[in-house]
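Re: the request from the purification team.
They wanted to know what the chain is likely to look like in 3D before they choose a buffer screen. I agreed to run a prediction and write the result into the notebook, where they can find it.
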Amino acid sequence: MSLLAGFLSSTPYIWFEPHLENIGGLKSIWGHESKQLTGLTALNREHSESESLFGRGVPVGWSGEIGARLESQLWSQLALKNRKRDLLYYGVTE
């Protein structure tokens, strides 16, 4: 996984779950860094406790299953690229 590719993209990505740090039930790639125990990761963790957790990064374990949430998001993004439905490309809509 390239951090730069993920940073420059606006699409979902998967992250190998065993490489994530689990702190209080929330997972992070930076949670193990000493500066992040009180830094931005801690601040985001604090705000995420009251929000629905859905973002671009999706943890995937050894099974390789991406889960229904990511699958649904990927199908939605694919549908958005369908030029047959894009009015700017002479497409049609309902």
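For the purification team: Helices lie at 3-8, 40-48, 67-80.
Please add any questions underneath this entry.
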